[in-house]
Each structure stands twice: as structure tokens, then as C-alpha cells.
Amino acid sequence: MAEGIGEVAQVAVIGAGYAGMAAAVELATRNIPVTVFEASRVLGGRARAVETHGVTLDNGIHIMVGAYHETLRLMRQVGADPARLLLRLPLTLAYPGELLLAAPRLPAPLHMLCALLGTSGLNWSEKFAAIRFMRAIQRNNFRLSTDCTMVALLEAHRQPQRLRAYLWEPLCVAALNTPADAASAQIYLNVLRDSLAAARQASDLLLPRVDLGALFPDTAASYLAAHGGAIQRGTTIERISKEGKTYVLHSKQNRHGPFSQVIVAVAPYHLPALVKNLPELNALRESVASLRFEPIVTCYLSYPSQVRLPQAMVGHAHGITQWLFDRGRLGGPSGLLAAVISARGRHLELSNQALAERIHAEIAGVLPNLPMPLWTQVITERRATFSCTPNLQRPETITPLPGLLLAGDYVAAEYPATLETAVRSGIRAAASIGQATVD
Ligand SMILES: Cc1cc2nc3c(=O)[nH]c(=O)nc-3n(C[C@H](O)[C@H](O)[C@H](O)COP(=O)(O)OP(=O)(O)OC[C@H]3O[C@@H](n4cnc5c(N)ncnc54)[C@H](O)[C@@H]3O)c2cc1C
């Protein structure tokens, strides 16, 4: 039994996304009895495997970077070896025939300096503007006195249009899933500080070679089972009640508990309904209900097996496609490509078929003589992440109710909504177990 939480400690985690599974793994490692309740039969939440056309795909392509230290640590801890499950590439931004930025294997900060100076497709004045920008934000320790939008920051630093269009804005949309004219410059600078401007390995791209379930949550579930934890899949918790010093969870058929402490690790849009009968959380509920969301669209196109992209991941600057991935180069079937479009835009007005046709035409611009796809599958996650705008108030791990903690990618953090943010929030919530007790 863990120190400081007494004899009867039983912890419930609601939600088996990356945040909830990270919390559960941390608790199980400390020998704290934990039960995870998950509405779906599939683990992973917004980063989960889906079956379609006889293939296991993901609900959306997920990119990690070397700076995801806690996700990588927990993967190792549960036995999911990052070296085998992730393709590690030095930071490369490739727009075939237009621009290529590739970080050489040199120590920081030389890798970024050489990457920017060696970028093909930028002229010297654009390269120096990029270096000037990096040096200016570095001099201020990546801190802004007042947060503003990314576009305002780029304008203040007189960044040329092409640099914005090929480098800063695509990176902003990829990292914050928020258009640059609405995105928080401070959160973007935090991401730059810990990736591009940190040790060279921190900026490496890590591309999953397996589906997002196998990457962490499924292996974490086996780890939990081996360490005395349990997962109840297909169990939607409808409300939480406080009974004396404990919490009881209510699903349609059952009461679950009592639990001495509860970590609520659901997506922000599921939180308000779940806690509506807890008046102590009224202010929290209202603040979470005011968050706005951004979509991510992923379009899979299955081509004959000879179709390949020049790299596992390439950028696309003209049209609606933002990034293209070659799943054949990432452990998937040869010929299977995925197009990713982050954040809101005109593409949301198209039907799935029209969108797939448009994306096929854009890929044909990159790969001449492209045959027609055998099948296509569009997956639209309308609330993929919260909209990461300047000065956003995000809730803390510890709530006004003792023993009821929050985890999730929207909980207060220096980062936007990412797998790493979710994992760190889960670790923080688990670390608070035992410190907080029920009144
Ligand atoms: C298409 C897409 C692409 C993305 N790309 C990237 C990327 O490239 N890199 C990156 O780092 N991040 C990316 N993200 C963001 C990342 O997926 C999320 O930040 C992260 O998965 C959020 O994890 P979470 O555990 O906080 O929440 P969730 O994954 O939403 O987990 C919450 C879980 O709670 C469950 N739940 C909800 N209500 C209840 C209830 N009442 N009872 C029981 N269970 C409940 C849900 O079923 C879910 O499993 C992407 C997201 C999407 C959607």
C-alpha cells in the first residue's frame, strides 16, 4: 500500500485516453489499486485504432517529437519499446520540388543553424530572417511580455511571406491545431523552445510504425493487469456522487465504488455533463464549457502497392492538403497514403467524396502518373483539440473538491493539446493522489 493514502485507498480513473492510461500506469507502479472506466471498447480516446477496409488504421495520423520525454518514458516502462514502434527521423520539412529543410546530426544549436542555412528553396534574405527570429525569441528566453497571435508575432518580427507559408505557419497549425491568426504565440514559443531550440534529439520526428492502440494504451493495459489494476471497457460513467468521504460512480446499470479518490480524464467536452451534480465544480464546469475546438481531417487513399511518396512525411503548401504520409513506409500496407488537414477551413464544406477527389488531384500534382485510388476513407474529428488561443485559462489538476482530480490535454500546461500534454497531465494527477484527501 502506498504511503500516505491509508488502508482503504481505491482510485478510479474515468477515461482510457493517453492521459487516463498514463495516470493509471503511474498509480499501478506505486501499488495503488486503480480501476479505469472507459466508455468505448477501444482504448486510446482521440488517439485510437480504427478498422476499415480490412486494415487497422488510426483515427488520425499522430506525429510525436523527441521532446515527448514523458510519453517515451512511460512507453518504455510498460514494455512498448519506442525504438521499435517509432520511426525516428532528424527534423525534416520536405515540400517536394519546392523546399527542403533537414537538420543534420550535429549538436544543438548547430543542427538548427545549419538546417536553416542549408534549406533549399529559401533565398538568403529569408534564411537570415528565420535566424534573426530564432535569435530574438531566444534572447527573451522564449517569453512574451503579453501573449498575442502567431500572425501578430511574425509581423512584429517582419518575417517574409514565403518563410511564414512554408515554415512558421505550417508548424504552428501542426503543433497547436489552430490557425496562425488565432493561435497563442506564447504556447508556440514554448513548443519551439523545447523542440527546435533544445537538444538535437528533441526536434527529431517520431512517426508511429504501429497503430495508436499498440503504441501505448494496449500495452499499458497489460501492464495494469500485471500490477493489480483493472479496466472496465464499454462503461460510460454518467455521474459522480460524493458519499461521505468517498466518491461513487454511476453508469446506466451499476454503482461503482466507493473510491477514495477519482481522476477524471475525459475529453473537455465530456466533462460538464459528468460533473453537473457537483455544485462545488460549477465554476470549473462553466470555464471548461467555454473552450472552443478545432477539427482535424484525415483522408486515407489506398493506391496500388507501387505508389510511394519520396519520404514518409511530406508537406503540401498549395491547396487543402497540409501533410501527406506514406503508411507503406511506416509499417502499413504499401500504397496506402494519408492526407492530414488540421484546424478549421473551407475543406469542411466538402462532402467526403469531393474531399477525397480533391486530395487525390493534389497528390497527382506531386506524383505524376498516379493511378486512381482503390478506396478512400475520410475521418473527421470535429473536436480534435481545444482551440489554443492567446491567454487561454485552462483548469488546474486539483479541483475545489478534495480527492477529485483532472487529467487531459486541456488541463493547465505550457503546451497545446498533444499526446505529451495528456500524458504529463495524467502523471501530475497520479502524483497528487495521496496528497489530497476527501473531507
Ligand atoms: C485526428 C487527430 C490528430 C492528432 N494529431 C496529433 C499529433 O500529431 N500529435 C500529438 O501529440 N497529438 C495529436 N492529437 C491530439 C491528441 O490525440 C490528444 O491531445 C490526446 O489524445 C488527448 O488525450 P486525453 O487522454 O486527454 O483525452 P481523450 O483521448 O479524449 O480521452 C478521453 C477518454 O475518456 C473516455 N470517456 C469520455 N467520457 C467518458 C465517460 N463519461 N465515462 C467513461 N469514459 C469516458 C473517452 O471515450 C476517451 O477514451 C491529435 C488528435 C486528433 C483527434
Question: Could you characterize what this model shows?
Answer:
The protein has 439 residues and is of the alpha+beta class. It has three domains: 11-67 and 211-291 and 389-432, FAD/NAD(P)-binding domain (3-Layer(bba) Sandwich), CATH 3.50.50; 91-203, no CATH class; 293-385, Polyamine Oxidase, Chain A, domain 2 (Alpha-Beta Complex). The chain has helices at 18-29, 69-78, 82-85, 110-117, 124-139, 150-156, 161-176, 185-194, 212-215, 217-226, 271-274, 282-289, 352-366, 419-432, and strands at residues 11-14, 34-37, 49-52, 55-58, 64-65, 86-89, 92-95, 99-102, 205-208, 230-232, 239-243, 246-250, 255-259, 261-264, 293-302, 313-315, 323-326, 336-342, 375-386, 404-406. The strands form six sheets. It has a five-stranded parallel beta sheet with strand order 10-2-1-14-20, with helices on one face. β11 and β12 form a beta hairpin. Flavin-adenine dinucleotide is lined by residues 14-20, 37-40, 45-47, 59-60, 62-64, 236-237, 265-267, 270, 274, 296, 298, 381, 384-385, 408-409, 417-419, 422.
| Strand order, largest beta sheet | 10-2-1-14-20
Distinct ligands, ions and cofactors found in the model? flavin-adenine dinucleotide
Mean pLDDT score, rounded? 93
Helix content: 25-40%
Radius of gyration: 22 Å
Supply the CATH superfamily name of the largest domain: FAD/NAD(P)-binding domain
Can you tell me the residue ranges where pLDDT is under 50 for at least 5 consecutive residues? 1-8
How many domains? The number is 3
Q: Can you count the helices?
A: 14
Shape estimate: globular
State the end-to-end distance: 21 Å
| Structural classification | alpha+beta
